[in-house]
């Protein structure tokens, strides 16, 4: 028997930022580009989460684009701490000059109680970071605004 999630998932297309700073190798400067609040989330609930964002590398060098997902008590939270938890490990891929555009996409299925200890309103935040060897300063990776985040509750 295959479980089919409810037909009314939570969705957002509201990107919070349009660029992410490119930092040198070894540095870490994540930005939450999209957040989705899950009202009344119970620790016993399972979630199917999907996300997609497109980025543009307008430079003549490779840019490593990393991403991870956090649960937090507030939108746009990028770090793990007392009220925030990493849901997915960080993953990274290169967006080369000849490729120019990159797609940051993923999905996961989680049990809320693995990350949160009490029922309430919680936010999922898609965090992006960009790195390039020998780079830094004012260069930024462009977030194209074409993307989404969807959560199915079951």
TrEMBL record:
Superkingdom, natural source: Bacteria
Segments crossing the lipid bilayer: 20-42
Keywords assigned by UniProt, alphabetized: Membrane, Transmembrane, Transmembrane helix
The keyword Membrane belongs to this UniProt entry's keyword annotation: yes
Protein name: Uncharacterized protein
The species this protein was found in: Ferruginivarius sediminum
